[in-house]
Specification:
This is Phosphomannomutase/phosphoglucomutase. Belongs to the phosphohexose mutase family. InterPro entries: A-D-PHexomutase_a/b/a-I, A-D-PHexomutase_a/b/a-I/II/III, A-D-PHexomutase_a/b/a-II, A-D-PHexomutase_a/b/a-III, A-D-PHexomutase_C, A-D-PHexomutase_C_sf, Alpha-D-phosphohexomutase_SF. Its cofactor is Mg(2+). By secondary structure, this protein is an alpha/beta fold. The protein folds into four domains: about 150 residues, Alpha-D-Glucose-1,6-Bisphosphate, Chain A, domain 3 (3-Layer(aba) Sandwich); about 90 residues, 3-Layer(aba) Sandwich (Alpha-D-Glucose-1,6-Bisphosphate, Chain A, domain 3); about 100 residues, Alpha-D-Glucose-1,6-Bisphosphate, Chain A, domain 3 (3-Layer(aba) Sandwich), CATH 3.40.120; about 90 residues, 2-Layer Sandwich (TATA-Binding Protein). It is about 35% helix and about 20% strand. The chain has 15 helices and 22 strands. The strands form four sheets. Strands 1, 2, 3, 4, 5, 6 and 7 form a seven-stranded mixed sheet that branches. Strands 17, 18, 19, 20, 21 and 22 form a six-stranded antiparallel sheet that branches. The longest helix is centred in the last third of the chain and has 22 residues.
């Protein structure tokens, strides 16, 4: 059956498939997406697809419909059941076949979606397959006249845990009390399998019950409000470290023993240093929103720093092109060459635990080595005319601007360690601002100045 183009494009986005269950995504729609995906993969020589799903109420039925769509096109299916997104990537790498993960990550319970990859966890985005899939769903997916594929079930959770632990030297780990907030997401499924087997680790779980309604808080630790419960839990339990995972547990956020959030930039720098210690001279990728401390430390540790646009498709592409050993983003996505170039928050967590546990200092002291600047975090502004607002902001800084960079939005260097980036959202009428400077007072001054300029344009156009 054919479908309206506008409805399909609303759901099949630049990096994945995502929408409201019932009104935008249902079993028939998923069946059609699966058919188009299977046809594309069959044309590229694939004979099997691995499928995993998160804990949302709609995920089992939607993933079953997807399996039917794949087998109707003659490909076999391996179902791994409940999984984190990086566990699905592991399955794709282990079985050397394309994969589909049913999740809407940190979005509310009413949403669901699909993250697709080629064999070896290679990403599929708008320019690498999703456009082909959406065009075929719009036109109508042709039926397959060959035999139907077979479906098998396979549990890869223990293998996933063993593989991650094999990539990090945890032999010198001292006893650690580790508080983990799973946010009722898939971290409650994977954490016991990966960290719960370590004799030196005492897990202090919070919200491990799998519940796709997210009854305690949103499963989005990028929002500071969703870290408050973990910060309190760390202090109350006298934990050495706190870890928070998002809904599909592919991102990991860190809290120190004092209850203070550790920036993903600092985690990126720490993991980069550990990876470079075993391969001096390797390339490490960082997106342009990470702290300037990241490329500084990469170079100091003997590595080559490579700057990327924001977004997993760009970093994964650069990982494949350059053979980079590691990549990190300000959003707490961490990519590893030894994990098929894909991202794994749990693998990053193992690196932080290893770094903490092989020395005696508390985490706050350890991470101070990687925190050289103050930063604003990402601040969003709803605007009617983003280019006009950006132009107004740039003009207002005048001679303070040392240089401009247009790799992704505009990055403005103000000198003496101060810079900011303004970029538009791909999906919403938003301008995103990130600021970094030597002191929090300087950060505040730049944020307030930019905000005032944007407000002035919004008022004049109202």
């Amino acid at each position: 059956m054919s479908r309206p183009a506008a409805a399909v494009h609303r759901v099949i986005k630049a990096y994945d498939v995502r929408g409201l269950v019932g009104s935008e995504i249902d079993e028939q729609f998923v069946f059609d997406v699966a058919g188009a995906f299977a046809r594309l993969m069959r044309a590229e020589g694939a004979g099997r697809v691995v499928i995993g799903h998160d804990m949302r109420a709609s995920s089992p039925a939607l993933s079953a419909a997807f399996a039917d769509g794949v087998t109707a096109q003659g490909l076999d299916v391996t179902r791994i059941g409940l999984a984190s997104t990086d566990q699905l990537y592991f399955g794709s790498g282990l079985l050397d076949c394309p994969g589909a993960m049913f999740t809407a990550s940190h979005n509310p319970a009413a949403y669901n979606g699909i993250k697709l990859c080629r064999a070896g966890a290679k990403p599929i985005g708008k320019d690498s397959g999703l456009t082909t899939i959406s065009d075929e769903v719009i036109a109508g997916v042709p039926a397959y006249d060959g035999p139907t594929g077979a479906i098998e079930d396979r549990d890869v959770l223990a293998d996933y845990g063993d593989f991650l632990r094999s990539l990090v030297d945890i032999s010198a780990l001292r006893p650690l009390r580790v508080a983990v907030d799973a946010g009722n997401g898939m971290g409650g499924h994977t954490t016991p399998a990966v960290l719960g087997t370590l004799s030196s680790v005492t897990l202090l779980p919070l919200f491990f019950e799998l519940d796709g309604t997210f009854p305690n808080h949103e499963a989005n630790p990028l929002d500071p409000a969703n870290l408050v419960d973990l910060q309190r839990h760390v202090v109350e339990t006298e934990a050495d470290i706190g870890l928070a995972f998002d809904g599909d547990a592919d991102r990991c956020f860190v809290v120190d023993e004092l209850g203070h959030a550790v920036t993903p930039s600092a985690v990126t720098a720490l993991v980069a240093g550990r990876e470079l210690a075993r391969e001096i001279g390797a390339t490490v990728i960082h997106n342009l929103i990470t702290s300037r401390a990241v490329p500084e430390l990469i170079v100091e540790r003997g590595g080559t720093a490579l700057r990327s646009r924001v977004g997993h498709s760009y970093i994964k592409g650069l990982m494949a092109e350059t053979g980079a050993i590691f990549g990190g983003e300000h959003s707490a996505h961490y990519y590893f060459r030894d994990f098929w170039g894909a991202d794994s928050g749990m693998l990053a967590a193992l690196h932080v635990l290893a770094a903490l546990g092989e020395q005696d200092r508390p985490l706050s002291a350890l991470m101070a080595d990687y925190q050289r600047y103050e930063e604003s975090g990402e601040i969003n502004f709803t605007v009617a005319d983003a280019p006009d607002c950006v132009d107004t902001v740039l003009k207002s800084f005048g001679s303070r601007i040392q240089s401009l960079d247009h790799l992704d939005g505009v990055t403005v260097d103000l000198g003496e360690g101060s810079w900011f980036n303004l970029r538009t959202s791909n999906t919403e009428p938003l301008l995103r601002l990130n600021v970094e400077a030597r002191t929090s007072a300087e950060v505040k001054e730049i944020v307030e100045h930019v905000a005032a300029q944007i407000a002035s344009r919004s008022e004049s156009s109202a």
